[in-house]
């Protein structure tokens, strides 16, 4: 810092005021280095984003071009529309169902797999294997398991004489069913990241704690969790954003039904844009979703990060 | 330090602004683009000629499975039958996906010469300006339309003009389990005809393992059940005398249908198997439901995959009205505008080939879709198959018994996919115990909004 500050002083001493061109030299160099990523981001992120915001103020014609300027009408319509409020509610519920449960499950599995036992590599592979299955493929498998007449779950229930459940056809159950399959799909990734975090924790910490006579749960609470907190924070943020953006399993398992109970916002955007060709209202929903994720992420960084312990 | 950062930000913001400016100019550029498109049309672009000196055209379709196999062999047959043209059939995904792709290149010289578009996309295609009406070629060539099935042509005829060539056509039918009828002490040769009959029969057929009746949660079946009572879907004579402005399916006929379903649902004789064709078909062939509605194109498969005897019947109608018949479903073939004359000629020749009785007979047997040329039913291979499966006859009879009217001609609106989604939601809410009139009104309201936007943005 000091060297940077000293330079203008030298200029003043010689009574020579540097021009904007001269002063911005470093910035220009920086921009030059940043140019590749700026161009890439502009084309693939900023341009679509601004285009979306622009379209959200219009009604579009059959070809998808902006036709009638309506100002904020699309947003007003959304906030009045019971269908959209229902989508927002379903999305929130879905996040609540999948994120905490998914992370607890993968944390549990990661703790198990972190023990040094013979053949633990086998379990580590199994637990992380769902990462290798695509959303489409695993959704199709789940579709069979949820099938009302020939599905595995209902046959299992029938074995014990429990009443049959219409997994994907009953609005009470559909969102839960999709959440269950989503948790399963995401476990592999979360597990792998968390296991990596656990392996990084210094063994000496446990050793000294053991010497001091600390029990397993005390060590878990006082060493493992604090040391794992950056990883946990990362995986919570990623899972949250992923849950907000869930699409594939909805499209394959329920198509937003029954009675709109699984019509999450991203799916509703897809329907509005590519089935109904209303790019205006679809864009308004996209902007709304963007704001929601932005707020959620900011809140998380403000309140969640305080508990994160960086080494 | 801060200053430099600020300059950096300003530069990024500037870049973003430039991009945003490009965005603004987009709609302005669009008419220009279509302007040059018509230029191409006037000058007529060069026809694509392949290595062998034949005119080559593309044919976009949405047929998968046995439909695709059959279509590929028909295309091959055409390519071998003459020496001037080559047709390349390209599968483009579902009807919706095909239409989405078409939107980006429709009306340009890169568009495929022939596109297969589902029946409810008819209004959209007419309004789009991408297409050349079929009538032009029919008139120029003196093609005899009389040879084609009148009831199918009626759907695709708008203001007396045929806009597209009907191709794969199907109608709904009611399939039932004859063995279950016998077990319940019912006459397996006599299927229920009216709503009250169906409700009654469903109650008798209901057992612990089997529901009496079911219907796929899909807007098409609702449209058909309304039409067979003579009810309309939208105003302006079903959108055929002018642009429709309002949905009318929430009137008496629509309510009849919803009450009919509601009554069985409340009585526990109605099985809800969701929105997936395969699920409801699996339910029927595994004996979980005794009667259900399917497409005529699904009849062959139902007969083959069911371990019991399958009966085929006309779709039911309300008790107080006379049966009007069914609306054609399926898809038709459209000819592109703005491509070379030679290419259009090639496309026209291919369409004529498609409508010959021999090709139609093959198509009918391979897929279960109707033959648009009724002479096909006189072909020997069809007669043999019908002797084996007399059920096929019922589907054709139902179509030919249909009384031509505005109701059975089917509605024309450009926002049909959205409206169907509204109906699906209404049905799902109904099955959860909501009031029939209330959910119908909501669906009508949603459709009205879509129609309103479509009319507002139409140039």
Structural notes for this entry:
- The complex is a heterodimer of chains A (311) and B (459).
- With 311 residues, chain A is mainly alpha-helical.
- Chain A folds into 2 domains: 2-55, no CATH class; 75-307, MetI-like fold.
- Helix content of chain A is 73%, strand content 2%.
- Chain A has helices spanning 2-13, 20-23, 25-55, 73-80, 82-114, 120-128, 135-146, 152-159, 171-199, 203-211, 216-244, 248-253, 265-274, 279-304, and strands spanning 58-60, 66-69.
- Chain A has a two-stranded antiparallel sheet.
- The longest helix of chain A has 33 residues, at 82-114.
- Chain A is flat.
- By secondary structure, chain B is α/β, with parallel strands linked by helices.
- Chain B folds into 2 domains: 55-169 and 329-378, Periplasmic binding protein-like II (D-Maltodextrin-Binding Protein, domain 2, 3-Layer(aba) Sandwich), CATH 3.40.190.10; 172-325 and 400-457, D-Maltodextrin-Binding Protein, domain 2 (3-Layer(aba) Sandwich), CATH 3.40.190.10.
- Chain B has 20 helices and 13 strands.
- In chain B, strands 1, 2, 3, 4, 7 and 13 form a 6-stranded mixed β-sheet that branches. A 5-stranded mixed β-sheet of chain B has the order 10-9-11-8-12, with helices on both faces.
- In chain B, strand 5 (157-158) and strand 6 form a beta hairpin.
- Classes of the chains: A mainly alpha (311), B alpha/beta (459).
- Chains A and B meet through helix 3 and strand 2 of A and helix 1, helix 3, helix 4, helix 12 and helix 19 of B.
- Chain B: This is Carbohydrate ABC transporter substrate-binding protein, CUT1 family.
- Chain B: Belongs to the bacterial solute-binding protein 1 family.
- Chain B: It comes from Edaphobacillus lindanitolerans.
Shape category of chain A: flat
Overall 3D form of chain B: globular
pLDDT < 50 stretches of chain B: 16-44
Q: In the CATH hierarchy, what is the superfamily of the largest domain in chain B?
A: Periplasmic binding protein-like II
Strand segment count of chain B:
13
What CATH architecture of the largest domain in chain B do you see? 3-Layer(aba) Sandwich
- Helical stretch tally of chain A: 14
Structural class of chain A: mainly alpha
Share of helix among residues of chain A? over 70%
Q: What is the C-alpha radius of gyration of chain A, as a whole number of Å?
A: 26 Å
**Main interface: chain pair and counts:** A-B, 46 and 54 residues
What is the CATH class name of the largest domain in chain A?
Mainly Alpha
Given the helix and strand composition of chain B, which structural class is it? alpha/beta
Distance between the termini of chain A: 26 Å
Q: How does CATH name the architecture of the largest domain in chain A?
A: Orthogonal Bundle
At the first level of CATH, the class of the largest domain in chain B is Alpha Beta
Helix-residue proportion of chain B: 40-55%
Number of domains of chain B: 2
CATH topology of the largest domain in chain B: D-Maltodextrin-Binding Protein, domain 2
Mean pLDDT of chain A: 87
């Amino acid at each position: 810092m000091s060297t940077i500050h000293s330079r203008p002083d030298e200029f003043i001493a010689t009574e020579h005021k540097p021009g904007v061109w001269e002063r911005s030299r470093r910035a220009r160099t920086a921009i030059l280095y940043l140019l590749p990523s700026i161009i890439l981001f502009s084309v693939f992120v900023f341009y679509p984003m601004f285009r979306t915001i622009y379209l959200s103020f219009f009604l579009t014609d059959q070809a998808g071009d902006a036709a009638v300027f309506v100002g904020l009408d699309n947003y007003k319509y959304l906030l009045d529309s019971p269908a959209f409020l229902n989508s927002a509610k379903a999305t929130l519920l879905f996040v609540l169902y999948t994120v905490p449960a998914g992370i607890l499950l993968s944390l549990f599995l990661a703790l198990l797999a972190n023990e040094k036992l013979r053949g633990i590599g086998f379990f580590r592979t199994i637990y992380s294997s769902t990462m290798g299955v695509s959303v489409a493929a695993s959704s199709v498998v789940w579709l069979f398991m949820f099938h009302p007449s020939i599905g595995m779950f209902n046959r299992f229930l029938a074995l014990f004489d429990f009443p049959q459940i219409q997994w994907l056809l009953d609005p009470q159950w559909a969102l839960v069913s999709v959440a269950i399959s989503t948790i399963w799909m995401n476990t592999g990734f979360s597990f792998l990241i968390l296991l990596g975090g656990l392996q990084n924790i210094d063994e000496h910490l446990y050793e000294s704690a053991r010497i001091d006579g600390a029990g397993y749960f005390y060590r878990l609470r006082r060493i493992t969790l604090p040391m794992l907190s950056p990883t946990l924070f990362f995986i919570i943020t990623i899972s949250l954003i992923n849950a907000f953006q869930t699409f594939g399993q909805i499209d394959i398992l329920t198509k937003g039904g029954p009675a709109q109970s699984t019509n999450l916002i991203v799916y509703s955007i897809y329907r509005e844009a590519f089935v109904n060709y209303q790019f205006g209202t679809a864009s308004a929903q996209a902007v709304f979703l963007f704001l929601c994720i932005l707020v959620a992420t900011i809140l998380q960084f403000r309140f969640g990060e305080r508990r994160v312990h960086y080494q | 330090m801060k200053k430099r950062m600020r300059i950096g930000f300003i530069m990024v913001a500037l870049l973003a602004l430039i991009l945003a400016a490009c965005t603004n100019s987009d709609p302005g550029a669009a008419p220009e683009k279509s302007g040059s498109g018509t230029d191409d049309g006037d000058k007529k672009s060069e026809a694509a000629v392949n290595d062998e000196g034949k005119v080559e055209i593309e044919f976009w379709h949405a047929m998968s499975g046995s439909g695709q196999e059959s279509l590929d062999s028909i295309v091959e047959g055409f390519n071998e039958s003459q020496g001037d043209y080559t047709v390349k059939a390209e599968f483009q995904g579902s009807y919706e996906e095909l239409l989405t792709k078409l939107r980006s290149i429709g009306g340009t010289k890169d568009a495929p010469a022939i596109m297969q578009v589902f029946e409810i996309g008819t209004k959209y295609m007419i309004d789009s300006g991408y297409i050349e009406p079929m009538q032009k070629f029919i008139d120029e060539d003196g093609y005899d339309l009389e040879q084609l099935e009148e009831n199918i042509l009626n759907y695709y005829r708008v203001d007396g003009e045929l806009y597209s060539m009907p191709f794969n056509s199907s109608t709904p039918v009611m399939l039932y389990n004859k063995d279950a009828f016998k077990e319940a002490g019912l006459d397996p040769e006599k299927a229920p005809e009216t709503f009250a009959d169906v409700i009654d029969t469903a109650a008798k057929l209901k057992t612990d393992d089997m529901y009496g009746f079911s219907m796929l949660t899909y807007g098409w079946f609702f449209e058909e059940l309304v039409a067979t009572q003579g009810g309309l879907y939208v105003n302006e004579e079903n959108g055929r005398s002018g642009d429709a402005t309002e949905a009318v399916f929430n009137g008496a006929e629509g309510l009849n249908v919803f009450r009919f379903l509601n009554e069985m649902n409340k009585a526990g004789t109605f099985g809800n198997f969701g929105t997936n064709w395969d699920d409801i078909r699996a339910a029927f062939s595994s004996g979980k439901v005794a009667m259900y509605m399917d497409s005529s194109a699904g009849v062959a498969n139902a007969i083959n995959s069911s371990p019991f005897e399958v009966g085929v019947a006309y779709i039911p109608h309300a008790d107080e009205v006379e049966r009007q018949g069914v609306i054609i479903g399926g898809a038709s073939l459209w000819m592109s505008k703005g491509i070379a004359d030679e290419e259009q000629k090639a496309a026209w020749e291919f369409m004529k080939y498609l409508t010959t009785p021999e090709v139609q007979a093959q198509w009918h047997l391979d897929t279960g879709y109707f033959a648009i040329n009724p002479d096909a039913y006189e072909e020997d291979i069809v007669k043999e198959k019908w002797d084996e499966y007399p059920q096929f006859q019922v589907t054709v009879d139902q179509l030919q018994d249909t009384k031509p009217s505005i109701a059975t001609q089917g509605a024309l609106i450009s926002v049909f996919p959205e409206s169907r989604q509204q109906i699906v939601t209404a049905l799902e809410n109904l099955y959860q115990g909501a009031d029939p009139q209330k959910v119908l009104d909501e669906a009508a309201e949603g459709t009205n909004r879509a129609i309103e936007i479509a009319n507002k943005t139409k140039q």
